[in-house]
Every structure is written in structure tokens, then in C-alpha cells.
Amino acid sequence: MVASEPATESGAAAAVFLVDKPVGPSSFRIVQQVRRALGIRKVGHAGTLDPFASGLLVICAGRPATRLIAQLMAGDKEYEATLRLGVETDTQDLEGTIVATRPVPLFDRATVARCLAGFVGEQLQTPPRFSALKYQGKPLYYYARRGVEVSKEPRRVVISRIDCLDLGPDTLTIRVACGKGTYIRALAQDIGAVLGCGAHLIELRRLRSGPFSVSDSLPGTALAEREEARELLAASRRSVEEILDLLKEWQDRGASPQQ
């Protein structure tokens, strides 16, 4: 036990929770709600979702659960994403300013499938200007908001699968399985570039993170009320030992494409 920590924040009280974040609140807001419901200061998450995104958020409460965050973030992820074709924004998503528009050709599924197949495997991806990735100690969005251009070195990412779920006149919905560090916003822009019409991300839902599925998560909408949140969290807590066993089984199966 760490002397400076309350007893409720360490040992048997530490736990991991799977939360289905709704569209609207930030990931930090969900962390705040869990912290308030449990009365535990040491709470974090294993991978941010933007406010407009929904889906699986892995929450770690108390030590040693929070010490698992780096390990939990290293697993592969699965997303469902919808792209708006023909429009580019400065943030690569619906929250940004439109910077370019182009007509959208009448694509067929075969054309889209060939485009998507080109993104499977190891890729070099340039991080978005508006991202939390650090440059000289500050997040990239710090510079972007001030109009300062910085050098963003492409990073190695791995996309193990990408499927077309739906194709509309100016929308494309895909399912993506990818490794750590992949930006779906950047992927959306890159897909638009290959298709020749541009694109940006308008919907995003995280379906899986490592061995954890959104289908096993508790509804994030229920966390706003403290008493209801406390009951839900108590019923859905996963011990550190259980999480470690799941991670070991997952890694032994070789399920994660990137460690």
C-alpha cells in the first residue's frame, strides 16, 4: 500500500470498468463521473475518445489498476466509422472548419473495396494537426490552434482489417481493426485522398480494445447520477487479477497485431 493513498484506492478496491461512452461528453468527463461515484482520486482511461465519438472506454480506478493503463492501451482496437465524402476539414472530423469541397463520383463497392485493401498492413500515417501527440513537450493541437506549423513525422501503424459496411452517395461506413497509435481521422482523410474526392470523419464508435468488447460494457449515460453510477460500477467491476488473466490469454493467442 502507498502511504499517501487512502486505503480505498489500492489493493482489493482497485478495479477496471468497461464503459460505453455516449456521444457528447469527453472521456475526461466520464473519468470524473467514475471518480465521483467511487470516491477515488486515482482514476484514468486507456485511450481517449473524442466527444463526438462513442463506444468502449476502459476505465482504471485505484492502484494497481491505473498501472495497467499503458499495457491496456497497447492492444489492438476495432472501430466503426462513417466518412463524409467530398468535404475536407482542418481537423479531419466534423468539428473542424471546411477547407475543401469536391464533387463525389458515383463509386461502386468494387472500387471502394480496392481502395480500402490498399490500407491493410503496415502503413506510415501522418498524425492529425489537432491531436494530443506531443511535440517539444506540447500537444500538437496547442500549435494548431495558434496557427503554428510543426513538422509531423509519419508514424508506423498497422491496420489488420478494413471492411466496407455501407456506401451512400456521399458517405462511407467502414469497420477497422488496427494497432496502437492509429488515427481513424487521418485514415478517413487518406481514404478520401485515394478516392480523389476528399473526406472527413463524421461518426466513430469503438467496438473493441484488446480482449474487451463494447457489448460487455455498462451504459455511460447512467453515470450522471451518483447513486445509480455507484450501483452499476459495483456490479460490473473487474479485478486487476481478472484483467491480467484476460490480457495474458489474449497475448498467448497472438490476437494483438501490435504490442
Topology, element by element:
Layout lengths: L14 E7 L5 H12 L4 E3 L8 E8 L7 H5 L3 E9 L1 E3 L8 E4 L7 H9 L3 E5 L8 E2 L2 E2 H5 L10 E13 L3 E8 L5 H12 L3 E11 L2 E2 L4 E2 L6 H11 L1 E2 H13 L7
Parallel strand pairs: 1-14, 3-12
Antiparallel strand pairs: 1-3, 1-15, 2-3, 4-11, 4-12, 5-6, 7-10, 8-9, 10-11, 12-13
Helix pairs in contact: 1-6
Describe the structure.
With 259 residues, this protein is of the alpha+beta class. The protein has 2 domains: 7-74 and 211-252, Pseudouridine synthase I, catalytic domain, N-terminal subdomain (Alpha-Beta Plaits), CATH 3.30.70.580; 77-208, Pseudouridine synthase. It has 7 helices and 15 strands. It has helices spanning 27-38, 69-73, 109-117, 140-144, 184-195, 226-236, 240-252; strands at residues 15-21, 43-45, 54-61, 77-85, 87-89, 98-101, 121-125, 134-135, 138-139, 155-167, 171-178, 199-209, 212-213, 218-219, 238-239. Strands 1, 2, 3, 4, 7, 10, 11, 12, 13, 14 and 15 form an 11-stranded mixed sheet that branches. The protein has a two-stranded antiparallel sheet with strand order 5-6. Strands 8-9 form a two-stranded antiparallel sheet. α1 (27-38) crosses α6 (226-236). Residues 1-7 have low confidence and may be disordered.
What key phrases describe this protein's structure?
eleven-stranded mixed β-sheet; single chain; alpha+beta; 2 domains; Pseudouridine synthase; 259 residues
- Helix segment count? 7
Structural class designation: alpha+beta
Helical content band = 25-40%
Beta-strand residue percentage: 25-35%
Overall mean pLDDT = 88
* Shape assignment: globular
CATH topology of the largest domain, which one?
Pseudouridine synthase
